[in-house]
Automatic annotation (TrEMBL):
Keywords: Hydrolase, Signal. This is Glycoside hydrolase family 42. The lineage of its organism: Bacteria, Pseudomonadati, Bacteroidota, Flavobacteriia, Flavobacteriales. GO terms for molecular function: hydrolase activity. It comes from the Bacteria. Residues 1-23 form the signal peptide. The keyword Hydrolase applies. It comes from Aquimarina algicola.
Length: 795
């Protein structure tokens, strides 16, 4: 060998390098296989002691699957490299990442096995205690008014959206207890409209239905709970030829003009047929999703313009707008002309430029268009729901609405979050939590100053939806906690995974379908991700790189946190389904008119978020329709623009004895057109309170002092190195009658020092309910840490 080295030194070094690499790779696989044997032995030992091992069985399944996936990735590095290259963040390092991926996956398999082995050893040795997992009977879930039940117990469901396209629903490698087993009709598999049911392609020009597309719906096994999505992406050629304007006013995922009469006629036939053939089927127990991510952004410079969204509007939309304006202005064209600074002769002659210059924000023409755009969106979904229920009266519905449409400042999108939440029988959304900065961002994002991840969008929007419709099942039909188009990490921390799902469930989420599962059982990516990728959807092509399909520790942790949530489902419901004593007043009128209205209100929401309260919202409709005893106080903050009817609702609330805290006389001072309102709120039979100082902190303290109910007098004091509160917590009476239960999530970037105390100075016994260990009243909680504790008071 030494003589060979002298003669061929480079060759020998290369041989040694690759030999060592293979040995190292083999050692990871060998180590993982050994740990699988160890875990299997412990599972058998635990079963002999009648201990529940459901959690470890799931880890074992994921370990075996990802070892198989790693082998595929190793054998097909060119394909993996290509898939990494489709995501801009990873494009430059695609060769390196493709080479590293197989061993990365094997190392993560070893990590999850190590955790499972330790936990099971501790359980066997009585070092910890834990509740048995609630195994889900996917074929016998009951849908109640406000919760799902599994063999009589509340349950939270999780699965993956857009799941292994092409795999049959009966494939146990894809639909099982580990990944989830929620069925669908195939209608959400959308890369080619013609091949998907529940859209206009189902209907032939002669009025007959395409039997192949219909079979995608009718042949779904009637066994498992599921959902059906009406896919709004496009229309067949025969409709385009028959109606030249059909594409005007289209949007990214609504590929036609919703005001077009032919569209209405065809959709009526399609939705009725779908409703008839799926009536009382289990595949629709989780509802008919009326649309995928609807929006109609209609302002210049918005990113959606490049995807042909609202580049113009049809004559149908314009004429409906004219009718809407005629009603709004009581047929007084002179009043409109004064508002718009225009000179139209009559309402039939009104014209408008769409997309609109965003410099017009805050003007009457901007308000009228944005308000109308929302009203027409609501009218479209009312039409779809009415057509469905004309043949299927008991059909549950929801809409996959992006939560950011509520919390962002943009308001030209045509989506009335409150109206659509109120319209459907289930709450629907497409909400995200992100574990890091958007890779496109040129500077740190604001949330990074104090928090470990971006939580505000989901918490803020969910508390609003739950305030609007407190007695509805809540379904996140495309959950983006694990990846988004702008954020994902190939080594996502498992504590982030746990805290994000825990937080969302605490805020009302009953069902989530994570984006996305794209591995075929042999380890290869699903059919859509093979060959040349050319999707209209700007995000889909790059979705595989860095996804959960490459992260065994992430998918395993999702399943583990769902086991824990479901083991304590009664306690979680007690914590989340509480009275919301403090209501923040929300006005779409101000949101439409003001440039940063939602930013200001997010700051208020955040300032109150860490005080142990279940926050709520009030609107004109909530005040008019809901029992005022559901809250103690309504807080009005930086809300200059309100309609007369909003103002009158607030005054009526005061007249009936309500309490309002308002930040200044500037709030409520203008109508929707910016005209000064002469009237001011008066106390009536209630309390109208202004803060002595005009700053956010003074307003916050005043609102908190007006909350009267406190069931336990138990509080948390938090200290951390940032000096900024970051632990959100809730407390409730234990539904099993053992004192109180509390959950705490540390959203901060640093470890928090926490002290639990009682106002009456009694000693407290604190027990970690997840593992049975006893805690002191003072303890530490790491960043992204989650606790569920039982608290009992001493004598």
């Amino acid at each position: 060998m030494s003589r060979l080295f002298i003669k061929y030194p480079l060759l020998i070094l290369l041989i040694c390098f690759f030999t060592n690499c293979n040995q190292e790779e083999n050692s990871y696989n060998k180590d993982a296989l050994h740990k699988i044997e160890v875990l299997q032995g412990l599972i058998q030992k635990a079963q002999n002691k009648s201990l529940d091992v459901t959690r470890e069985e799931t880890t074992l399944w994921f370990a075996k699957e990802f070892l198989k996936f790693a082998n595929w990735d190793e054998t097909n590095r060119d394909a993996v490299e290509k898939l990494f290259g489709y995501y801009q963040k990873y494009e430059e390092d695609k060769v390196k990442l493709a080479n590293e991926l197989p061993d990365f996956e094997r190392k993560k398999v070893i990590e999850i096995l190590d955790v499972a082995i330790k936990n099971l050893k501790d359980l066997i040795d009585d070092n910890i205690t834990r509740r048995a997992a609630q195994k889900i009977d996917w074929q016998n879930i009951e849908v109640e008014d406000n919760t799902l039940t599994n063999n009589g117990r509340p349950v939270f469901l999780h699965d993956y959206f857009s799941k292994t396209v092409g795999a049959p629903l009966t494939d146990n490698n894809v639909y099982n207890d580990h990944l989830g087993a929620i069925y669908h009709t195939g209608s959400h598999l959308y890369e080619v409209n013609q091949d998907r049911p529940s859209n206009p392609y189902m209907l032939n020009e002669d009025g007959t239905f395409d039997e192949k597309l219909l079979s995608y719906i009718t042949e779904v096994p009637d066994t498992n709970i599921g959902f059906l999505l009406f896919w709004n992406m496009g229309v067949p050629d025969w409709m385009k030829k028959k109606e030249p304007e059909i594409g005007k006013g289209r949007s990214l995922f609504t590929g036609f003009d919703i005001d077009n009469p032919l569209v209405r006629d065809v959709w009526s036939k399609v939705i009725k047929k779908t409703g008839e053939v799926t009536k009382d089927k289990k595949v629709t127990q989780l509802g008919y999703i009326l649309s995928n991510e609807p929006h109609w952004f209609s302002e210049k410079g918005h990113w959606t313009y490049n995807f042909l969204e609202m580049n113009s509007i049809s004559s149908y939309t314009l004429n409906k707008f004219r009718v809407w304006l005629s009603k709004k202005y009581d047929d007084e064209i002179n009043t409109l002309n004064k508002n718009w600074q225009s000179n139209f002769k009559d309402f039939d002659g009104i014209d408008i430029e769409i997309p609109m210059d965003k410099a017009k924000r805050g003007t009457p023409i901007w308000y009228d268009w944005c308000r109308y755009n929302m009203d027409r969106g609501t009218e479209w979904f009312t039409f779809l729901q009415n057509e469905l229920r004309s043949v299927n009266p008991d059909a549950d519905t929801h809409i996959k609405i992006m939560a950011k449409l509520f919390v962002d400042d943009y308001r030209s999108h045509g989506v009335d979050y409150e109206a659509l939440t109120e319209l459907t029988s289930m709450i629907g959304d497409d909400a995200k939590i992100t574990g890091g900065r958007n890779y496109r961002s040129q500077k740190p994002e604001k949330w990074e100053e104090n928090y470990a991840f971006y939580w505000n969008e989901l918490a803020h929007s969910y508390d609003f939806q739950e305030s609007v419709s407190p007695q509805k099942i809540h379904i996140n039909s495309e959950g983006h906690f694990l990846s988004t188009s702008g954020w994902r990490e190939l080594d996502t921390p498992v504590d982030y995974v746990r805290s994000s799902f825990w937080l969302a469930t605490l805020h009302g989420m009953d069902v989530s379908l994570s984006w996305f599962w794209a591995r075929d059982p042999d380890g290869s990516p699903e059919d859509r991700l093979e060959g040349e990728l050319n999707f209209f959807d700007p995000a889909l092509a790059g979705s595989y790189a860095g996804s959960v399909n490459m992260q065994p520790h992430v998918v395993n942790e999702v399943s583990q946190v769902m086991y824990d949530l479901n083991s304590f489902s009664e306690e979680i419901l007690a914590l989340r389904d509480q009275r919301r004593p403090l209501r923040l007043f929300h006005s779409e009128t101000s949101a439409i008119n003001k440039k940063y209205h939602m930013t200001e209100h997010s700051e208020l929401y955040e300032s109150l978020y860490f005080e142990g309260l279940t926050l709520g919202f009030a609107t004109e409709k909530i005040i008019q329709k809901q029992d005022h005893s559901n809250w103690d106080v309504i807080a009005i903050y930086k809300t200059e623009y309100v309609t007369d009817s909003e103002f009158l609702a607030l005054q009526s609330y005061l007249d009936q004895g309500g309490t309002i805290i308002i930040d200044s006389t500037n709030s409520l001072s203008k109508n929707e057109y910016g005209q000064i309102r002469e009237e001011r709120l008066t106390s009536g039979n209630g309390n109208l309170i202004y803060p002595k100082e005009s700053n956010l902190n003074a307003f916050k303290e005043l609102t908190l002092s007006s909350v009267t109910n406190n069931i336990s007098n138990i509080k948390i004091k938090e200290n951390n190195s940032s000096g900024h509160k970051s632990c959100t917590w809730r407390i409730s009476e234990d539904p099993k009658g053992k004192g109180y239960i509390m959950t705490i999530i540390n959203l901060g970037k640093t470890t928090a020092d926490l002290k639990i105390s009682c106002n009456d100075s009694r000693e407290l016994r604190v027990v970690n309910m997840l593992n049975g260990s006893e805690l002191e009243s003072s303890f530490k909680l790491e960043s992204k840490g989650v606790l569920l504790i039982n608290i009992t008071k001493g004598i």
